[in-house]
Amino acid sequence: MRFDVITLFPELFDAHLTVGITRRAFESRQVDVRLWPLRDFAEDTYRRVDDRPFGGGPGMVMLAGPLERALAAVKAQRGAAPVIHFSPTGRVLDQALVRELAQSPGAVLLCGRYEGIDQRVLDRHVTLEISLGDFVLSGGELPALALLDAVARLQDGVLGDAQSHQQDSFSDGLLDCPHFSRPELLPADESGPERPVPPVLLSGHHAEIARWRREQSLRLTAQRRPDLIVAARAAGQLSPADERFLAGLP
Ligand SMILES: CCN(CC)Cc1ccc(CNC(=O)c2csc3nc[nH]c(=O)c23)cc1
Fold this sequence. Notes:
alpha/beta, five-stranded parallel sheet, two-stranded antiparallel ribbon, binds the ligand CCN(CC)Cc1ccc(CNC(=O)c2csc3nc[nH]c(=O)c23)cc1
């Protein structure tokens, strides 16, 4: 799959595409990311990409000219493709949307800055608007990076087998269980008493360990995100044993 990113700040993408487990997806071109610096498409001598809004008001608006030329250049190279615009007014990204995009041939990613993009460009080209959540960022680049990371993780061979199995269990919509590693006993210090690892995790009883982890996920999700319990129940993802455990919670 291929993502063409139109952005004022291509340098924001370099580091993220060359580190971590998703590196393999990008270096193997399983997820092919092409960066299109918007300023390359500014034509006037001042290489302008933004200007003041018609109708007045604070901030600047991204100009149609450079964006139209960038979109045309992308289309000339890859052919028609969905255009995703990152915007606070978009659909909030979730794992369902990530899964959808991970199974697609990719898209053109339009990263807004300033107060936004001239609406006429959006009306002409954009097929999907995506928000990262209800908080204010400085632009669409971090949301685009979040999407690329989430999609790359779902590509074959990016996650180890164990992790991808874990990925399946987690993406069944519950919050993840707590994780522990060495030492078995965390020594006491000024911040608190010594803390052991839950004994069941050292028992070697894999069925009991799986049950304990599932119950921890259920407890944590019921406490922090009861909405996810409702959704998992509606999706038929809670077993009778799950329901018995939930019924026993305070
Ligand atoms: C004055 C009202 N603001 C809308 C909330 C204007 C505005 C603020 C910040 C931006 C820049 N943010 C994005 O481009 C953006 C793109 S996706 C996203 N997801 C969550 N939050 C975000 O701010 C974003 C654009 C317009």
